[in-house]
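User: I'll paste a sequence; please echo it back and then give the predicted structure.

Assistant: Echoing your sequence first, then the prediction.
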Amino acid sequence: MSPEPIDVPLRDRIFKRDGYRCVYCGVPFPAEQLSLDHVQPRMRGGDNSEGNLVTACRACNTRKGSQPAWAFLAELPEERANFLHYATAVWPRHLRAIREAAQD
């Protein structure tokens, strides 16, 4: 699979990369019902890199709010399993933090 041209908007690249599927609930949606979610929120030091962005439906993104993904997913085993299955392009340090938070 060849990389997307750089002139394709970031939002479209992330949605396509994640298969237009919310990485939290695992459900595919039309693009207009999706949003970008920061795994580590910008207000907590996250950035707009592709390794920190995932596709989320509006309902899951609202539930997560400004929490880091590992805090949100710590007590949600089904959503955590979906995230670990579908969010394969997330930075490894984020995936590690999600796994570790579940073990606390």
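The chain has five helices and two strands. The first strand starts at residue 34 and ends at 38.
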